[in-house]
Amino acid sequence: MANISELIERYIKNLLQESQGDSVELQRNELAAQFKCVPSQINYVLSTRFNTENGFIVESRRGGGGFIRIVKIPLEQHGDPAVQIYRLVGEEINQSQAENIIKRLAEEELITLREAQIFRAVVDRNSLRLELPWRDSLRANLLRVMLAAVFRES
Amino acid sequence: MANISELIERYIKNLLQESQGDSVELQRNELAAQFKCVPSQINYVLSTRFNTENGFIVESRRGGGGFIRIVKIPLEQHGDPAVQIYRLVGEEINQSQAENIIKRLAEEELITLREAQIFRAVVDRNSLRLELPWRDSLRANLLRVMLAAVFRES
DNA sequence: ATAAATTTGACCATTATTGACCATTGCGAG
DNA sequence: CTCGCAATGGTCAATAATGGTCAAATTTAT
C-alpha cells in the first residue's frame, strides 16, 4: 500500500543501512518536504517505528541547526542473551522481576557491577515514587531505556 | 553543521585544551570577526555553554585592552560526594540541567561514557512519563540515587 | 460496523542570530 | 588634573529556524 509512513520508515532504515555507523541524522522539515507531508508525520513515524520497543533511540534538538538523530541499538551483536533479556522486560515489571533481570545481566557480563548498582537504584520502589499501577509501568520503561543506552555502542 | 554557536564553542574548548592551564583569554570583536557573526553572539555562546552550570567562570574587562577570560572550574574530587551531589541536583531539576551535570561528571571521569548514557536515558523527559511538576522532582530523585549508587563504593 | 492506523493542522517550545542601545576603561589633548 | 573620545565589552528584545504535541479528520483493516 502506498502508505507514506511506511515509505518514510523504509527510507530511514535505508539510510541507516547505508551509513557505516548505526545512526543517521536528518532534518524534520526537509524530510517532510521530500515526502510532501506535514512535519508532524515524521514524529508519527518516529514514535510508531523507531521507539525503544523496536530497538531505536531518537535524539533531537530544536532551533537553528536543529536535527533529529536516530540510533539503532545493535542487539544482534550481543547474541541471544541481550535480545532475550531486552524482550523480557515487557510493559510492566515489578521490583523483584527487575532485580532478577539485572542479576542476570551482571552474570552474563553484559553490564558492569557499577552499572548493575545504578540499575538497581533506579528500579527500586523507593526511587520510583508512584502508586502501583503506574510504578511497574515506569519501571519497565526505565529498564528498557537503560538497556538501550548500554546496548547502544556508539 | 549550520550552527555558528557550536563552532565557536568547539573553537574555545579547543583553545582551552591546547593552553596548558585551565583558562583562555580572547577578544570579543576579534572572535566575532573571525566567525563573521555579531559580537553579541559571543555572549550568547558564553552564557549558554560556558556558564557555571557547565563548570566555567567568565571574567572580562571593557575598554582599551579589554578581554574575555574563560576559566574552567573542575569538580571537587574530595569531600563527601553525597553532599556535593545533593547540592548540585536539588529537589527538582529539568532535563537540560541534568544533562549538564552528567556531561561534567563524564568529562571529569567520575563516571564512564556508558554510565553517562544510562544517566541520560533515565533523565530524558520521554522516559519519565509524568506531567511537569512531578517530572522534575522524579528526575532529581533518580539522578540522586544513581549518583549515590556510583559513589557508594568506598 | 468498529477499531486501529494514518494524515493533517493549529498551536507550542527551544535554540540561534541580529541589531539597537548601554557601560566601562584607557589615553591624550587642553 | 580633567574632559572627552576611542576602544572594548554587555544587555535585551525581536525575529528566524527548528522540532514537539495533541486531537480531529480520514482511511484502512478486522
H-E order of chain A: HEHHEEHHHH
Q: Which CATH class of the largest domain in chain A?
A: Mainly Alpha
Shape of chain A: elongated
Biggest β-sheet description of chain A: 3 strands, antiparallel
Helix content of chain A: 55-70%
Parts with pLDDT < 50 across at least 5 consecutive residues of chain A: none
Pfam family, one (chains A, B): CtsR
Keywords (chains A, B): DNA-binding, Repressor, Transcription, Transcription regulation
Family (chains A, B): Belongs to the CtsR family.
GO molecular function (chains A, B): DNA binding
Overview of this protein structure:
The structure is a homodimer of 154-residue chains. The first copy, chain A, is mainly alpha-helical and 154 residues long. The first copy, chain A, has two domains: 4-72, Transcriptional regulator CtsR, winged HTH domain (Phenylalanyl-tRNA Synthetase, Chain B, domain 1); 76-151, Non-ribosomal Peptide Synthetase Peptidyl Carrier Protein, Chain A, CATH 1.10.1200.150. In chain A, 56% of the residues lie in helices and 10% in strands. Chain A contains seven helices and three strands. Chain A has a three-stranded antiparallel beta sheet, sandwiched between helices. The two termini of chain A are 35 Å apart. The A-B interface holds A 57, 64-65, 112, 114-115, 117-122, 124, 127-130, 138, 141-142, 145-146, 148-150, 152, 154 and B 1-3, 5-6, 112, 114-115, 117-122, 124, 127-130, 138, 141-142, 145-146, 148-150, 152-153. The first copy, chain A, binds a DNA duplex (30 and 30 nucleotides) through residues 1, 3-5, 27-29, 37-44, 48, 60-68. Chains A, B: Pfam families: CtsR (PF05848), CtsR_C (PF17727). Chains A, B: GO terms for molecular function: DNA binding.
